[in-house]
Write the structure tokens for this entry.
Amino acid sequence: MTKNKGNLVVISGFSGAGKGTVVRELVDRFGYSLSVSATTRKPREGEIDGVHYFFHSREEFEDLIRENGLIEYARYVDNYYGTPRRFVEEGLEEGKTVILEIEVQGAMAIRDQYPDAILIFITAPSARELADRLAGRGTESEEVVNRRLERAFDEADSIEAYDYIVCNEQGKVSDCAETIRSIILAENCRLSRQASLARDMKKGFEEILSSNRG
Ligand code: 5GP
């Protein structure tokens, strides 16, 4: 049977919806490959270069754009974020499930280039809960929190372009990750992704029948 190429899974969500934790669970429990993005944002406490992000100066990032080293990039609250090309292309070639945790503009650019990509949007149960989570995180100033909420307000319009919306309820990260795992498994069974299996079955029957008939 011809090996199907891997799946590209895009995970977006409102800032504060907990997508980082969900994605970590997907990687740890199910072994998916997570793309590490490039950014011009300064590292937060505890963030490691090459693990959480590749941290770059603005000039370095613009070089990456010029060299076609990114499959998409976007500006988000004063900083650039982008997906390095090589990791994604090699992972898909090897048949892996590659996860991109990116914002909505990037997701739309991925959909244009990879029409088979699975687009999943993670949300909190309500806007109030999301705002409380963001304020409680304490990693950003009030001004940045408000700008992230403004961005969330704008992003709400883009949800319709996604294939799935998944709610990450407080304290239920495992459930959320399992739901996403189920989506990926179901998507793998789509006929369009299994065309070679159907063809191989047909060919197999033909061979068996012709040998049985002697
Ligand atoms: P944060 O600063 O909280 O780490 O990320 C801010 C936003 O940038 C999040 O919505 C995150 O999903 C998004 N993001 C992270 N990496 C990328 C990327 O490579 N491309 C795009 N388009 N967005 C990204």
User: Anything to note?
Assistant: The mean pLDDT is 93. The longest strand covers residues 7-13.
